[in-house]
Amino acid sequence: KAGKLAYQTLAMSVLAMGIAGAGVLITFLPAARNVAMGDLAPSRSPFWKSLYFVVRGFFTFTRGIPELIMAMIVIFAFAPGVLPGAIALGLHNVGILGKLSAEVVENLDPRPARALRASGAGTIQMLIYGILPQALPQFMTYLLYRWEVVIRTTIVVGLVSAGGLGREFRLDMSFFRYTDVTLLLIWYLILVIFVDVVSMFLRRLAR
Which of 5, 72, 144, 174 could be 199's S-S partner, Cβ–Cβ 3.0 to 4.6 Å? Predict the structure, then answer.
C-alpha cells in the first residue's frame, strides 16, 4: 500500500511539472520585455504591451499563493485526490518558472534573432529559430530543478487530502500509528533520492 502511495506521489509531481511546463511554454515569450515591447517585438501595437502586463501579473499571482493554500482552493472544485494536488503545484510553478524563463529571454544574445529578421524571416520564424534554441536548455534546467522541489512539496500538499503519501501521513499521525509513519517517511526519502538522481542525469543531457 505504501508503495502504491509513493507511486501516486511521484505521478503527482510529474503531472504538476507537465502542467507547469506546458503553461510556461505558452506564456513566457510574451512575458519577456524585449519580445513584448523591445527590439524583438513583433509590432509596436498596444496589444503586446497589454499582454506583457497581463502575463506578468498572472505569474505574480500564481507564485504568490503558497502551494498549500492553492491546493485547498483547487480541492473545492475537484474531488480529493492526486489531480487537485498536481494542478495546485502546477499553477504555483507556472508563476515561478514563467518569471525565470522570461528573464532568460530578456538576457539572451539578440543578434541571431536580428539577423533572421534582417534576412526576411517572419515573427514566428524569428522566435522559433532565433530565441527558442537559446532559451530551451535553460528552461529545461529550471524545470528539472523545480521538479526536485515539487517532490518535496507533495507531502505537504497531501496533508489537505490531495492524495499520495501526504494524505496517509496525516491519517497515521492522527491515529498515532508511528510505525506506519516511519514506513511512509522511508518511502518519501526513496522518492526524493530517486528524483534527485534522475533530475541530475536529465540536466546533464539538457546542457
Answer: 144
